[in-house]
């Protein structure tokens, strides 16, 4: 494709997406400065991959559930646009741990910068602690959170503000400890 591709409307639906850990040992490496090995047997996968100059006036993506660590995140709906390499997105409220998640933001591919606004309301902390951190019966209460994040050109700087509170919270595991 030598010229720009224009998409007026894109509608994508997935019933279920399952997130799994990679079995590739290279993905488990703790070496954060690891460079791509051009002699790797996986190099064939990247051959022919290139940027596509594309605009999408409007897109809707719906996923009934995303399964993470055997826990479903349900009712995912994302909508937005991609114009002049600026990706805009918005979510409807997403069902998670008896509460709601939502987000909106932009990503500018021209300069690798982003703006993210994320909100969590009435999230059951016990479910999250158990399913995602293996802390069964360690945290109780309902969490609310906000995150506002902005990155500059090429991620040279990152400004973020986060607010977090737990209503009717408790740490039952601490009750068993003596000081």
Quick structural gist:
The protein has 179 residues and is mainly beta.
What features would you highlight for this structure?
single chain; nine-stranded mixed sheet; 7% helix; mainly beta
Number of strands: 9
The helix content is under 10%
Work out the strand percent: over 45%
Mean pLDDT: 84
Distance between the termini: 68 Å
Q: Count of helical segments?
A: 2
Secondary structure class reads mainly beta
Identify the quaternary structure here: single chain
Task: Provide the low-confidence segments as ranges.
Answer: 31-36
- N-to-C SSE string, H for helix and E for strand: EHEEEEEEHEE
Shape: globular
Q: Characterize the main sheet.
A: 9 strands, mixed
Radius of gyration over all CA atoms, rounded: 20 Å
